[in-house]
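hey all, quick one before standup. I had two proteins in the batch that finished overnight and I want to keep them in one place so we stop losing track of which output belongs to which input. First protein below, input sequence then structure tokens straight from the run.
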Amino acid sequence: MLTQLQDDWPYFCALTYPHATVYNLSPSPPASAKGGSGTIQTAENYRQIYHPDLDNPFPFPRGFFNAVVFRFPTINSEAAYRFAISESKRVLRPGGYLEISVLDLDMMNMGNRARRAVRMLKVKLHVEHDTLSLKPISDNIQRMLGRRGFENLNRCMVGVPVAGKVADSRAGSLDEREFSYNNTEKSRTQGDEGVTKMAPRVGRWWYSRCYESPLLPENGDMSRSIWNDRALLRECEKRKTSFKMLLCYAQKPLAPLRRTVSV
């Protein structure tokens, strides 16, 4: 399995699937290379490889992987996205799968503050890096998969709340006056509530990493992030604004497309 993302998720995959070898192409050097004392390299089936950006070829031979995971890439140029899709196909074995998770720059159900914030973000990105693609990446990626010859595309669009919490599907299903929780049920319910409250925070973190990181200081200072505007968060919660997330996977054909010449 090849992943192209931050280090925590692929390391968790390596722990969850001990019989699979996980290669993580990361913009950060491995912990051992940095002289750190972290445990990120302790899993025997985990390999972290320094890969600075999507414009560079993947350091693997053709048909090396059964699966490639492309997860929340930082905003880049059209050419870089196309090259990454092409390289993913090259290193996949016939019948292998490419899994992709991306967030769009525009959000759903935006109010006036959100529209202004996103519009200013687009202007700043264009001024700083005029080659960056500001098109909806969810549509762009699906077109690129088709043009690169991937098959059996399966996709799902998910709305992730910007503020507030995810609605609890169990709300109202039980009469609290007639139901007494035991300690185990209380603990489980509190855990579920923690997850539903955390989802918007994680969504904002991923959005900032994908679209604000080229504009923020290298030390990770988030003081200039659009999410520091409390009025914006209140508006998003009131209007139920959500991030537009694409989850999809596609398959490399088992046999290459044969080109014939008509006579």
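OK second protein, same deal, sequence then tokens:
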Amino acid sequence: MKRSRSRTRRIDRLRRTGLLSVCGVLFLAAPGSGRAQSAGPQNECCLALLIPVGARSIALGGTLTARSAPESVFRNPAGLAGLDEGGFFVHHAEQEFQSTADAFSLLLTLGRAGTMGLSYELFDNGQIETTDSNNQTTGVLSYRDHLGLVSLGLRVAAGFSVGASYKLFLSRIDCSGACEGQQVASTTHGLDVGLRYQPPMFEALEFGASVLNAPLGVGVKEGGERNPLPTRVHVGVTYEALHEFQAGDAISLWLSGELTDEWRSPGSPEPAFGAELGVQDMVFLRAGYVAGKGLGHGGAVGLGLHYESLSLSLGKPFANTSLDPQTEPYQVSFGIRF
């Protein structure tokens, strides 16, 4: 019993470069879909953790580190402290190579102290067939990664908030049919920490910083080795550009900028920019851009709709990657606030 050789070579190559095990890293690697970090150092595991979660995050080029939003669970847990309401939020992404990612978050406010959250994300990285010596299909191997998070964001002083998320990451290869012995399961742990500051006398300006995927375990076993989590540092700022030109909040325009760098090999930060135009806090037009060339760079657009306790957002990058030109990646998010 053996795998199809050509399919095996293709899958192994993609998993080695992080393109299949990430599944959505190629989604964020498509121009405008978020952070580049397309492959990262060769010895990093769990590159699915680099995928920006949420249609709003995709549309803004990932520039949410300084903002307070439900997506702060995945970007900067300190941003959870600024939420006035809890809620239940669902995110779905159609990604490269017919892979998908689905996530949900349950957020509960703790009065004025802050917000706690429980989240889960499933990365479905696709399937490959196993064959026998006669090239007959004998089974199917399914590649899936699972991520669980427990998050807490707290207000600690005037304008200051801090946050942390504990992560449990499980990478699995499951067998259906006669492919026993090829199943794999590996688990590791990580931590996100962050802070956020909004000057009390100038609330139009916000700052944020976070360290994501700091390792608590020994990493995931890949190719006989334990590889570490892809630790990243994010620093961001956002500014409401129309606050001086109107008395009310009928129209808002938030402009955001962010730098992302690798923890283990710093020195080449990648800039990103985002803009969000809100009308009556009900309709939001979004655009983002990650500067540079190649995988992970370019623009994206998005639309958000809020009505009472319901919210719906769509995010779409402008272009596909050359590795899978048939795919049209996008993300959609839905939320119920309470």
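Flagging for whoever picks this up: Helices lie at 5-16, 25-29, 55-59, 72-75. The first strand starts at residue 2 and ends at 3.
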